[in-house]
Amino acid sequence: MRNIHFISGLPRSGSTLLAGLLRQNTRFHAGMSGPVGGLFNTLQGEMSGRNEYSVFISDAQRRRILGGLFDDYYGPEFTAGVLFDTNRLWCSKLRILKELFPEAKVIACVRHMPWIIDSIEQLVRRNTFQPSSIFNYQPGGTVYSRSEGLANGDGMVGFAYNALKEAYYGEDTANLMLLQYETLVSDPAGALKAVYDFIGEPAFAHDFDNVSYNADEFDLRAGTPGLHTVRRKIEVRERRSVLPPDVFRRFENDAFWRDSALNLRGVRVI
């Protein structure tokens, strides 16, 4: 019997780094965002009332089909006993995940918001000759239009941020934990201990000086080389933001998880 957990949260907040660490444990399978979330959404849509044949599909069948998606995708070629599926939309699916997998945990990676926008802008500038899939391969725009596009409700950051807030303030937080990027890079041992305690797995000796994850082919095809690059050694790296001061300030107060008074349901924040 395999256990499944979920990695979600904000982009550029350490989910690939976390996966790179977790996969050091041979009992675990973890990776970057994959196709299961999109398939899950599509199946939900196709079994809804917009499909004229949905009258022939019961909720019991919907449950089996959606749960079976994970069994079918993570088939016998995945031999790990503990699976982590990564996708930013999982924060918007806490209720249905609880119904399908009552024991599953959701680890939401978060980061001070200006540095998320900064990290994406830095990628764009670094890859001057390749328009990015993040902006639908459009070569125009400025740092202002890019930050606006990222932050709107359908944007790469805005959707994930709204999904995170929905999860954090919702009624299904018992299996939710927020892992701050700042904690992961400054105290990786403490961060991983918290993760293992949260998912109920025995401790494992991770190598924080030798983390490996390679998605170069995917990143190149997305027109964003370096999107999933993980530095081998985990350490805090100080640098100046590439954002104009007004753009940085716009997002400076968005880290709601840092205010304990707003943590109405006692969500674990590491």
TrEMBL record:
It holds the Pfam family Sulfotransfer_3. Its EC number is 2.8.2.-. One of its GO terms (molecular function) is transferase activity. The keyword Metal-binding does not apply. SUPFAM superfamilies: P-loop containing nucleoside triphosphate hydrolases. This is Sulfotransferase family protein. Keywords: Transferase. It is an enzyme of class 2 (transferase). The keyword Secreted does not apply. InterPro entries: P-loop_NTPase.
